[in-house]
Amino acid sequence: HFLAKRNSIAIKNFNLKYGKGKLQLTSLIKKKNNKLDSKYKLTLDQFDAQDFKVLIPKKLGKIKGNLSIKSKGSFALRTDSSFKESDIKKISFESRGRNVEIEKLDINSFAQSYISKLDLLTKKGQKKYTFSSGLDKLQFKAYYSSSQLKLINLLVFGDNKSFEINGKGYMYPFNSKKKGTINLNFIDNKTAFGKVLKSQIGSNSVPILLKTNKFSVSPNYSYTTKKISSKFVRYQGQKQINKQKNKIKKKVEKEIKKV
Fold first, then answer.
1. What does the pLDDT read at residue 82?
2. 109 Cβ contact list (under 8 Å, min separation 6)
């Protein structure tokens, strides 16, 4: 339904089918003096990712797969000036995807760049491991308010759940003076790298810290190496303690049998 009054325009439960996808939109815009107050609620269900190619940043390349998006938000726009960051009151965004392929998302290079820094591990398994960039499942939930984009939840599963990436963080998309951080865990479920990790630190998970400046993201490798080194020392130390405990236990049991 489309409703228009003197100082307001409303769209109620507008529905559209496009291919296999469904769109539903509700929106309200009110004008008061030189200001437009706007709020919306949008649902895109089961759309082909290629239908969003106009909205996809060029640096990601082509995207294939099935996407669903839910978003709602509000704005306070001024009619006597250009758009500013402060015009955004709040936006929530949630996306789900299946069988997704992102042309310029190279999980393999991303993983190798970290593996090459982990000297403690590569001494035991110094070789290249192969990770597919295909994604079985993608979940993303974020919230924008007061100039901060908060990544509430990120969950990614690789082909046949070969790996998992989960995490959260925050960034400042329009402010280069404020820096953000994103904490991730890369979990290897299938390759030999995961087995080497398990044997050396007792876990197949690599902790990752990304620094952000606006939408630019850069890895902090020292964070990962320090975390892995700490886990290595604790795990190997505990193994030695358990080994000594077992020796003492066997010795005590042997002495008891003599009595």
1. 80
2. none
Q: Helix H segments across the chain?
A: 107-115, 119-122, 192-201, 221-258
Q: Using the 8-state DSSP alphabet, how is residue 199 labeled? A: H
Q: How much is the pTM?
A: 0.82
Q: Give the DSSP H/E element, type plus range, for residue 75.
A: strand 63-78
- Beta partners for residue 88, in sequence order: 75
Q: What is the mean pLDDT of residues 5-19?
A: 86
Burial of 206 (0-12, 13-18, 19+ CB in 10 A): buried
Pull the structure tokens for residue 48: 């082909």
User: How many other CB atoms are found less than 10 A from the CB of residue 252?
Assistant: 10
Which helix or strand (DSSP H or E) is residue 35 part of?
strand 35-48
CA distances from 62 to 68, 106, 123 (A): 17, 13, 37
C-alpha R_g of the chain: 25
